[in-house]
């Protein structure tokens, strides 16, 4: 089975047997009912466990599908069922197809995480390849995120506003802005819980989701702006980056997922180490899972 101890990724496995202290920070994922994300979660957790066997993984889920819940538990992940503030009534219908991406914005309110001062949030489309100790030792004042490889840009709005408890608040936007990726976020939950901060943020989200470009990621970037702590690129490294294989600790399948070998849309991003890292991702699957992925992959080659 895929959980085999593969001497992958240049990580010295002998370290596993030394008395390394188990990291106490929890690693949190969020999923919705999309079966592709559930399978990606499985691979993420399996690859993480090879590096940190004792780490606690939590999955936040807002749905009711018992199949999804059983699968999460079967993978040894603590399931946190949660009724989000940003739900189908506060988020416009145009975004319901990817409503799961907003869950990460509410981690400070999840009861199962109430005792945590910091957590590491990761998208499920990640592959862990090297130990996380240096990352889990960080304590950013609000949140730590790595930058996307995109040019800085200018906002359409000079400021955004929102209402909270009958008062209007204004958020000036930094010009120009470099975009941080929301695929890996080290959250300071304690800070977000203080002074109603998270509720202000969620009021901002509900009021501005229609005025921004890129869902949860833009909401984090626009509201927190310069308060975001920059993480080293190795903690959120897409396969298409030249340094991915040599330096990536967390590989983030940003853009084409491991089965997206067909669409012309992603051609420009299936470069550098996409092929190698996709194979490595596939190695974590059982044969039954692999055949499911082959069907997804074949569908990307249809006109
Ligand atoms: Mn992602």
TrEMBL record:
Keywords: Transferase. Gene3D superfamilies: Spore Coat Polysaccharide Biosynthesis Protein SpsA, Chain A. InterPro entries: Glyco_trans_8 (IPR002495), Nucleotide-diphossugar_trans (IPR029044). GO terms for molecular function: glycosyltransferase activity. SUPFAM superfamilies: Nucleotide-diphospho-sugar transferases (SSF53448). This is Glycosyl transferase, family 8. It comes from Nitratidesulfovibrio vulgaris (strain ATCC 29579 / DSM 644 / CCUG 34227 / NCIMB 8303 / VKM B-1760 / Hildenborough).
């Amino acid at each position: 089975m895929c959980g085999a101890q593969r001497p992958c990724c240049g990580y010295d496995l002998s370290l596993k047997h030394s008395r390394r202290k188990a990291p106490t920070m929890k690693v949190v994922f969020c999923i919705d009912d999309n079966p592709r994300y559930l399978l990606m979660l499985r691979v993420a957790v399996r690859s993480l466990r090879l590096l940190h066997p004792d780490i606690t993984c939590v999955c936040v889920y807002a749905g009711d599908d018992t199949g999804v819940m059983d699968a999460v538990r079967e993978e040894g992940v603590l399931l946190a069922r949660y009724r989000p503030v940003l739900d189908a009534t506060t988020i416009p219908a145009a975004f319901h197809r990817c409503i799961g991406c907003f869950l990460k914005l509410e981690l400070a309110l999840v009861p199962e995480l109430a005792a945590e001062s910091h957590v590491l949030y990761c998208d499920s489309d990640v592959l862990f390849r090297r130990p996380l100790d240096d990352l889990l030792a960080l304590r950013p004042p609000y949140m730590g995120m790595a930058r996307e490889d995109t040019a800085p840009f200018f906002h359409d709005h000079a400021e955004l506003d929102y209402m909270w408890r009958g008062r209007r608040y204004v958020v000036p936007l930094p010009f120009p802005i470099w975009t941080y990726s929301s695929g890996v976020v080290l959250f300071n939950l304690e800070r977000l819980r203080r002074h109603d901060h998270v509720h202000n943020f969620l009021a901002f989200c509900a009021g501005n989701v229609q005025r921004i470009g890129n869902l949860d990621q833009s909401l984090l970037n626009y509201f927190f702006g310069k308060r975001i702590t920059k993480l080293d690129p190795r903690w959120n490294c897409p396969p298409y980056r030249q340094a991915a294989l040599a330096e990536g600790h967390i590989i983030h399948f940003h853009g084409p997922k491991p089965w997206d070998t067909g669409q012309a849309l992603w051609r420009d991003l299936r470069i550098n180490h996409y092929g190698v890292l996709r194979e490595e991702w596939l190695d974590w699957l059982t044969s039954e899972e692999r055949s499911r992925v082959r069907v997804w992959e074949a569908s990307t080659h249809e006109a």
